[in-house]
Amino acid sequence: MLAIKIYNIEKKYGEVEALKGISFEVNEGEMFGLVGPDGAGKTSTIRILCGLLLPSAGKAEIFGHDLVKDKINIQKQIGYLSQKFSLYGDLTVDENIEFFADLHGVKNFQERRNQLLDFTRLTDFRKRLADNLSGGMKQKLALACTLIHKPKIIFLDEPTTGVDPVSRRDFWKILSDLLKDKVTIFMSTPYLDEAERCNRIALLNDGKVLSFDTPKNIKDSFKKIVVEIVCSPVIEAYKYLKANSKFEVQMFGDRLNVVLNDYEKEFPVVEKLVLSSNSKIIDHRIIPISLENVFIHLINEAQQIKV
Fold first, then answer.
1. Cα(35)–Cα(189) distance, rounded to whole angstroms?
2. Residue 181: which of 107, 97, 119 has the closest Cα?
3. Domain CATH for 193
4. Parent domain of 260
5. 96 in a domain, yes or no?
6. What band does 166 get if pLDDT is binned at 50, 70 and 90?
7. pLDDT in tens, 59-82
8. Judging by DSSP bridges, how do beta strands 16-27 and 2-13 pair with one another?
9. Interval 131-155 mean pLDDT
């Protein structure tokens, strides 16, 4: 069964087009990732799907129900964790969850709250004020509040941004456990390593969906070769290749990723260019395609078409 279906959604803020006719589907019980940089349109998409914004054009359905016509009933089935911590800092962990239980009309919520505190490992901190929690704990509390009314879908807007690595790992463990209960998870993220954990993803940039499929299928569709070159000084080599060739070049730390169509014909050309930049090649190898390679390629391709 489809949990979410959107058709040609557009969103304009005055003259600014935040979304330019995006379409995709999300299956019930899957973890779906909306992946893109800041300003891509991720938050606008989530706020529309939560009924907090009206689309300028297009249509969206949640479990087959029209989002605009049946918004009240739909909102009872969803939970939303926004980018910003939006709970009450002067209330304790317990009191915040109680407040959201009252907000959603949940009676006899105490057992459910205890389950959520255990689930998020916040039981020992239940009397602590929200303002005094760490960043990771705040996100877990926000998630507990989101789940108090047992939503069928939860929308998470960049939930791990600014969270330390340990808390980030704990958060992902919690999300994995939610999938066992067939909760549909729709999350936005700028992190492509997080996107790899999703069942399916939509790569979003400049208000448009560049690709929509499983992470594996998206990578498999990239019929190019990526060569990793360790060189020094790397910045000079990067600038020289960008200025003097049409090769797609990405810099990661002390190495370059160069996208090729034909290794045998094109790598000697790349090698000559790197040496011409007064850089020394220390090592090189063909590496597996990453989502980052594909995403950057699709963005560059879209920009060339736009020009």
1. 5
2. 119
3. 3.40.50.300
4. 223-288
5. yes
6. confident
7. 999 999 999 889 888 888 999 988
8. antiparallel
9. 89
